[in-house]
Amino acid sequence: MDKYGLIGYPLGHSFSVNYFNQKFSDEHIDAVYENFEIPTIDLLPEIIASNPNIRGLNVTIPYKEKVISFLDSISPEARAIGAVNVIQVVHGKDGVQLKGYNSDVIGFTKSIEPMLEKHHRKALILGTGGASKAVNYGLKALGLETLFVSRYQRPGTIQYKDVTPDVVREYNVIVNCTPCGMYPHVDECPSLPYEAMDCHNILYDLIYNPDETLFMKKGAEHDADTKNGLEMLLLQAFASWEFWNNRR
Known about the structure:
By secondary structure, this protein is α/β, with parallel strands linked by helices. Helix content is 30%, strand content 25%.
């Protein structure tokens, strides 16, 4: 039986486990999907060695960038983004080869593109982790200018205190790539001037639990168009399966 899995820490509730095991059951695929909750990415070789039937992995927080040094090759897109969230495990006569890809950018781009109109030219990206890099790559591919917002002083970013009403009117697409507002912390949201938003704003949250985050709710109260990360998650899962099976 083939095996697939998710590496990250901590994992807790995993969409991927439920999604793929249901897919395998529905489509009569002789495979299983497991969580590999590892406190350090240095344990990845041990997982590969102790699971000789493993064929593919998804990668989540906090290893999307750290995992790159363990891979034999990565796709040009993943290299440009600087983050990997899909690993194809290839078993050959010369041993095991690990190939890295990024399906986040595929899922995000396909999900947000139908929402964009001509006046959506600039975007704020909240957060600076691996997912935010994929979002940045996707937004630029769609023709938008981007600006990162961080809690800390980092090169090439602004801080939340710098996000004024004028900024949210100019950068009218805002993508939350942080865990702020994720269950169980549903009463939290990024610190933004929501009162300055209107129907020209898009608030896209990579979080999908809860369905409507406080970030989305506060934007919707001012007529902003909102969307959570569930469709992106589904689309990137589709892409993961294609990468594992050499369909891309």
